[in-house]
Input
Amino acid sequence: MKKGMIFDLDGVIVDTAFYHFKAWQYLAKQIDIDFDATFNETLKGISRIESLEKILHYGNKADVFSVAEKNALMDSKNDYYVKSLSKLTEKNILPGVLPFIKQAKKKKIPCAIASASKNATMILEQLNIKDYFNVIVDPHSLSKGKPDPEIFLTAANLIDVLPNEAIGFEDSQAGITALNSANIFSVGISSKDNLVGADLRVDSFEKINFEQLLCL
Ligand code: BG6
Ligand code: MG
Output
């Protein structure tokens, strides 16, 4: 039986993955780099700085900006992103998530958030769902980001379950790879057939049978 659940945030709990995409596209345009949704898939799950480095590399501008300039670019992206979140409400919670986490709460299954986002706590508060989670892993406390398993192993430890007793939910390839490296059962949330190695793939939480999942 599984005893704990670990959730990514962006693209799993709430539809903010799209807002990240739009904010990075906006920023990239300022420095004459254009990218599409396919390239954006490679940005999912990774940190702000890693995303910027990837975009600069993609646009052949890897060595163009100083550290201070890169910080300014990240601030600009984050300002745009945070502004776009101002209208975020419970309607932006992805289908089936709320009944699912309510069921976990009812069954006293500890839940953790393992997101690379430094905006995670603010978003959970804005959506009025922070209290469903026993733990929010602080990405500042980690030495490596996804696809390294560190964030998921930290989350499992904090909710006091062994990795093989936990289930992790992810919408990014980096996250699925991290879960698999951590030996945590990986559930890929995606409407496309794109999450290589996911132990289970569903297009939404509505498709998951809670009781059956615990026994997988
Ligand atoms: C992840 C997103 O959850 O958080 C990435 O999938 C994002 O796209 C990363 O870059 C960092 O987020 P933030 O909010 O700290 O810039
Ligand atoms: Mg995500």
User: Anything to note?
Assistant: The chain has two domains: 4-14+90-215, 17-85. The two ends are 8 Å apart (CA to CA).
